[in-house]
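I had to read the description of the data format several times before I understood it. For illustration, here is how one protein appears when written out as sequence plus structure tokens:
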Amino acid sequence: MQDDSVTSMDDLKAVVRGFCEERDWDQFHDPKDLAIGMVTEASELLQLFRFKTPDQCRAMVSDPDRSMDVRDELADVLYFVLRFADMNGIDLSTELRRKVGIDAEKYPVERSRGSNLKYDEF
């Protein structure tokens, strides 16, 4: 099994693509339904943290046994992100770098460091 340090985005897309092709699921993976899947899985991840304090959340994530649900839901979110990108010809590495560049302009270090204000609240 390969970890993040040696696995490319294309490798991950291929894993998800193969899984879906074996099951003939392409027919169900239009942009709307994949976006719904992303939000649904993200909501399931969020549910794990509901009504917990920041310390309880950190403890859950750091505990190997208790964090399994977190890891499962995070993997489900990633699955749908990868599938959406693959089915729609989106290069995630390029788009992430592009968006971080935009956000760097919105959130200059000298104004945003240590602040959780949105760019239009500076």
